[in-house]
Design a protein that fits this description.
mainly alpha; elongated; 7 helices; Arc Repressor Mutant, subunit A; single chain
Length: 166
């Protein structure tokens, strides 16, 4: 005897949004974003420390300086690019100066503004660390599979909507 429609549907929600993962609550989405960021950040930070004697923050600062015109960036530019406070960027740059990876200098025209400029050792270190960073991040993000474009686009929309308005 065939099962009735009610028997087939028993225990299955009529609303697809009630299925786990079908329509996550905002709190669940937020938790996943925080967890992924935390886990990837820790993995990448650990690899950069182990292989290049750099923290993730130090690496990000070096990379931003390396990508700036003349391999030089103001403290404010580094802070903005890396998401650090002024004291945080000062501390990070202090460590990079102590390692001989950047030097501080004042630029002609505005002697008040302090810049960080990459040294040859800094250029070599950031070039090597970029490979470690980029390969590890790419490997971890392959887990997004075919959803990578959708996730990237969605996160870009949220990021654009939450940028500080000046």
């Amino acid at each position: 005897m065939p099962l009735s429609e009610d028997a087939l549907a028993r225990g299955v929600p009529r609303d697809a949004a009630a299925l786990p993962g079908a329509a996550p609550r905002p709190a669940e989405t937020w938790l996943r974003i925080v967890q992924v960021h935390d886990h990837i950040t820790r993995r990448v930070d650990s690899a950069l420390h182990r292989h290049h004697d750099l923290s993730l923050t130090g690496f990000e600062a070096l990379r931003r300086i390396a990508e700036s015109p003349g391999e030089r960036a103001s403290m404010g530019e580094v802070a903005e690019a890396v998401g650090l406070s002024r004291p945080g960027v000062t501390s990070t740059i202090n460590r990079l100066v102590a390692q001989g990876l950047v030097i501080r200098e004042r630029v002609d025209g505005d002697r008040r503004l302090l810049h960080a400029r990459l040294t040859a050792a800094g250029r070599a270190r950031v070039t090597a660390a970029c490979t470690t960073h980029d390969e590890l991040v790419a490997h971890l993000l392959t887990l997004l599979g075919d959803d990578a474009t959708v996730v990237t686009d969605a996160l870009a929309r949220v990021s654009a909507a939450t940028r500080t308005r000046r």
